[in-house]
């Protein structure tokens, strides 16, 4: 029974990846080329709105997960996606930038939650390897179908833009709704992060910087050497991605994240090197290399976020939100660079070569300076579980006395000792805040000072310290 459910979840996640890949292709090949005729900043506006909404998702997931009701979110997504698609279609027909702007905003309000559901469905598969298989085969399949589909007429394209995300929502519903239901009744990630800082990745973590840089390369590939304002595609992209998917299946040992990262980086570097040779011919070689590198990195990103979610389920939705917000920002920067290079190529100058050389230099410098010692595998393993286990003590007075002695020995203040005792008993931030009638920021400051003075890095380490010190001599090892 459990195995059957796992296969069904894998099939649903694979289907969602294919559908969302096709949606992205239709948006870039059908909608945005029409926008270019009367609303040239439409693509960048759409991506910017998406980035802002992902910031909102991250804040809600981190601070108020209780408001994330799956049924309400799904209903909002269906209504917003269907109605705003009609508005966007009308804006294209009427050539109205105002209608296009309104349509983009409402469409992304509905679409953003579909992406969240689809992301959760992928990351909640039994293992990160299952996630990698679903992502790799799904991306390869969507690339193959894109080649077979070609560029659709406007009416068919707009219908597909509404239908494909909603179908992906249906496939993702079961896994995502169950996860959100659990999070509604759990402690907020922001509270847990105070007591368990090692269980969460901060927005400034190197992983998100890496996503930003690869997304810039992705945006550059999206707009470089455009053909009729649509992305320049190669029919061979899906074959490389299929080979990567097969390699993941055949891999006997878990891991491999760092090897996949190196492969992705080499493809992006090759794409930047090839770009100047395609300026006059519009050959898709550079675009293909950059996109394959980006897609391989996307597979790696799914694996990494899924593994983080396995270590700490409370961090999953927050990590997804930050990753997608950063990816959207990087895509904007890269797309603008690609448009700028195209403009200079049409003028016959050398500025396009200069832009490409600068992009390549920044990419290599970033890898050399920031990622020589970075490891995806170490990042995953470094995320701790926030689960707290406590042991009942029959000597409560002795336990309090020992905690007081620890506080005195390490220079804790009276209030810090009181909070230390609460944390040693497994109390969370919300309890401490209400018990002492102090603000969350004050609790956060006290916890940081307590951790520093005790030389611990998580609440579990603090509990272990208190319990080992409070245990009777006969129970100590």
UniProtKB/TrEMBL annotation:
Keywords: DNA-binding, Membrane, Transcription, Transcription regulation, Transmembrane, Transmembrane helix. InterPro entries: Sig_transdc_resp-reg_C-effctor (IPR016032), Tscrpt_reg_LuxR_C (IPR000792), WH-like_DNA-bd_sf (IPR036388). GO terms for biological process: regulation of DNA-templated transcription. Residues 405-470 form the HTH luxR-type domain. Pfam families: GerE (PF00196). The lineage of its organism: Bacteria, Bacillati, Actinomycetota, Coriobacteriia, Eggerthellales. SMART domains: HTH_LUXR. This is HTH luxR-type domain-containing protein. One of its GO terms (molecular function) is DNA binding.
């Amino acid at each position: 029974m459990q195995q059957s459910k796992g296969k069904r979840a894998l099939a649903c996640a694979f289907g969602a990846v294919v559908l969302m890949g096709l949606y992205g292709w239709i948006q870039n090949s059908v909608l945005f080329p029409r926008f270019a005729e009367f609303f040239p900043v439409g693509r960048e506006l759409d991506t910017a709105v998406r980035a802002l909404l992902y910031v909102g998702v991250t804040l809600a997931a981190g601070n108020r997960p209780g408001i994330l009701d799956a049924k309400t979110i799904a209903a909002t997504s269906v209504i917003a996606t269907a109605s705003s698609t009609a508005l966007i279609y009308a804006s294209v027909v009427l050539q109205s930038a105002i209608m296009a702007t309104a349509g983009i905003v409402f469409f992304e309000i509905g679409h953003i939650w579909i992406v969240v559901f689809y992301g959760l469905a992928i990351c909640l598969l039994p293992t990160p390897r299952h996630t990698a298989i679903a992502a790799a085969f799904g991306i390869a399949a969507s690339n193959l179908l894109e080649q077979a589909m070609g560029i659709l007429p406007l009416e068919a394209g707009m219908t597909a833009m509404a239908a494909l995300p909603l179908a992906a929502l249906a496939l993702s519903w079961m896994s995502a709704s169950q996860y959100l239901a659990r999070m509604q009744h759990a402690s907020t990630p922001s509270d847990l992060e105070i007591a368990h800082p090692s269980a969460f990745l901060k927005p400034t973590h190197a992983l998100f910087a890496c996503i930003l840089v690869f997304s810039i390369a992705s945006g550059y590939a999206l707009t470089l050497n455009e053909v009729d304002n649509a992305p320049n595609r190669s029919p061979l992209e899906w074959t490389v991605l299929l080979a990567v998917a097969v390699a993941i299946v055949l891999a006997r040992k878990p891991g491999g994240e760092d090897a996949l990262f190196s492969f992705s980086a080499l493809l992006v570097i090759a794409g930047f090197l090839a770009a100047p040779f395609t300026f006059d011919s519009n050959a898709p070689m550079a675009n293909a290399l950059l996109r394959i590198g980006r897609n391989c990195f996307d597979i790696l990103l799914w694996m990494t976020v899924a593994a983080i979610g396995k270590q700490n389920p409370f961090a999953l939705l927050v990590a997804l939100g930050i990753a997608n917000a950063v990816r959207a920002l990087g895509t904007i920067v890269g797309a603008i660079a690609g448009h700028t290079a195209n403009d200079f190529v049409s003028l016959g100058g050398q500025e396009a070569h200069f832009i490409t050389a600068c992009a390549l230099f920044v990419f290599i410098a970033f890898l050399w300076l920031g990622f020589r010692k970075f490891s995806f595998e170490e990042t995953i393993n470094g995320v701790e579980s926030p689960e707290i286990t406590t042991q009942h003590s029959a000597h409560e007075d002795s336990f309090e006395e020992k905690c007081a002695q620890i506080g005195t020995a390490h220079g804790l203040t009276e209030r810090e000792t009181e909070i230390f005792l609460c944390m040693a008993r497994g109390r969370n931030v919300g309890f401490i805040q209400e018990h002492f009638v102090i603000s969350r920021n004050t609790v956060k400051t006290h916890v940081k000072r307590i951790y520093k003075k005790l030389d611990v890095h998580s609440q579990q380490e603090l509990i272990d310290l208190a319990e080992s010190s409070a245990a009777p001599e006969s129970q100590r090892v």
